[in-house]
Amino acid sequence: RPSRHQSQTMETEDQARLGDVTAWDSIPRAVLVKCFSFLTHKELTQLLTVSRNFSLAAENDGLWKALTRRKPEGESSYFSDLRSPNYKKLYQELACLRLHTYRVVDQQSDLYASSTDHKSQSIANVLRANPSFWSSKGADAEKPETLIFGLVSPVTIVTSVSLKPYRAAYQWGQPIYAPRAMRISLGYTRDEFVWSSDVFPVLNEDREQTFHIAPRIVGGKFLRLELLGRYQTQREDDLYYICLEKIGVKGCPLGVLKEQPYLS
Questions:
Q1: What structural domains and CATH numbers belong to the chain?
Q2: 186, 235, 177: which is closest to 206 by C-alpha?
Q3: How many CB atoms lie within 10 A of CB 10?
Q4: Residues linked to residue 181 through DSSP beta bridges, in sequence order
Q5: What is the pLDDT of residues 50-89, one digit of tens each?
Q6: Is the whole-model pTM more than 0.70?
Q7: What is the tens place of the pLDDT at every residue in 203-245?
């Protein structure tokens, strides 16, 4: 049982806490909304339990509009003109978009590679589970390569692309043949691509590397990967190659968005 002195101390601390809450509640809601607009979604969620005033300010639709239209860090462009009758719901659906994804390459479509070193090393290999790979022809270190994949729907939203560079364990030194960088493009025909990402650096490591597009919303029928630069020469001919063991494309066909009413 606490002593009288301890009880008085606890009562004083409780009053101080109550005083703090009263102080927070006295902040004009418009000021809170402006301050909250600079926070991340995670930070904003953590503040909701501070006070009722904070919770009410966090329901402001203008705040969620600002969060939805905010340009992701490191990106040069973003869909800043998204419109919705409920921006909080739209933001939540955007956040969930990456979680509800599927493999969206149409394996029956005509795949394209700008070069192939041998017919047994075709681009179709990167979509298969068996341990095989695609290889470009040998070239100088700066020569790019282009890969094109058809997607499963006439309009498919793509949320991420992953690739795994190939390690040639049968060659001296077990070299890895990654590209130095990659650019992702989407379009509705094989000849016209309406959106392109920034250039993503690729590490020369034989592990799966994932490059996220979400929460940006971009879609199309065809996906183009531009592989830029080369790390590794082949000992036999001293030419540079790009070899990939696996490519994965995740997203969702437009029809799936019927479950996301504000996003659709």
A1: 4-97 (no CATH), 102-258 (2.60.120.260)
A2: 177
A3: 11
A4: 201, 228
A5: 777 888 887 787 777 776 666 555 443 344 455 666 666 6
A6: no
A7: 999 999 999 886 677 888 999 999 999 999 999 999 999 999 9
